[in-house]
Amino acid sequence: MHTVADIGETITTSLGPWGAPSCVVVLGQGAEVTCHVGGRQADISPETLFGIASVTKTLTTVLVLQLVAEGRLDLDAPIISYLPWFELADPRATSCLTTRHLLTHTSGIDAADDFTDTGDDDGCLERYVHDVVCGSKVLHSVGERWSYCNAGFSVLGHLVEVLSGACWDDVVTDSILRPCDMGGRTRFRLARGAPVATGHRTNFDTGEVIADDHRPPRSIGPAGSTLLLSAGDLVRFAQHLMGGDLLPPELLTAMWKVEASSRSREQGLGWIVRSSDPLVVCHAGNARIFTAFLALRPDNGQVLSVTANGEGASLVAWALSQSLFPQGTQRRPVAPATKLEMPEKAACGVYARRGVTMSFNLVEGGELVLSSQLDPVITGIEEELSPLPLRRIGPTSFSGRRPFAPLPTVWDFGDFDQEGRPRSVFASRLALRVE
User: Which of 154, 168, 185, 226 has its CA 20 to 30 A from that of 127?
Assistant: First the structure.
């Protein structure tokens, strides 16, 4: 077990000068729960609330599976069985899209990070699904591959609303937060005076860490925009979940079974799965001004949660997890074998998904450089990204790290035409070549 000094050093080293000012780490196993507060400005308490960003997806998944347990939802029935008005641009996709596809990020819906604000009232999710997701094209056939999709969890959130007869904020409060004695709330159900950390974002070009109170819209709450929890809350959630208080054993097993894979991860129902012995399941969250991480070992009840009011929760978590969650015999995702050694020139061109345009070009010396344009609807703020030089790391893969970004990003080119040109590029989200 880590000592307090170990955890403090890990926080300081992992966050570095560009990371979050404050970070909370909670370790839990049975009745033993230890907490450490660290960072450059450790002026927070163990129960301070943070935005947990995409860790919220694990709670939305539990709400969906509770409906399955109650016999009100079939994971493999078409979504239109429950939302008859739902439709995508491709009729075939509309007819075969299921809850399972949304939970496993295999829907292909081209609205992955569309954070359009559809209001703060209880009808915002229905409007988001109707006005933003409906009519979307699909970037790949439904179920064909993994590509992270926030919008899919907003669809799931509205599905929970329809089948439960209440708005998502109230359902998550009544079905998870209160039963698990979690002090957090959604931003729209937050008690006045609740201790909420001030968020921060990093300017990746200058390294400056800036206080920021930007709040993503309620319309993507089920994907990770509005839920405010403490690191202790996350441990309590995980312990109640593993203890069988939220789902029956058979659904816990199903939730943590590998359903889809990409180059770098294996996906269960709503959770990232490390299919090893011991099994470890986790989820990270990054909302620009808050980051969070939750990992747990179902075999012995061990839990790690990290919350931070800026960049770096995942780096802290991974540093600590090296000893908490031994690798064991792990089956790592394997990228499809290819004999193609794609020349840099073949990658050149423009690739796009909703809200993001990427231009890959060769500069003097033959170096591949990426220039990106982001629509404000994706980030919530105006942002210009400097051109990013890339280096080859595989036959069809390139990597680059923006200044002060926590980790490098890998771009995988694929779907080659007869002339050897890639028709797509993948960096956790799929984008297609623009002809």
Answer: 185
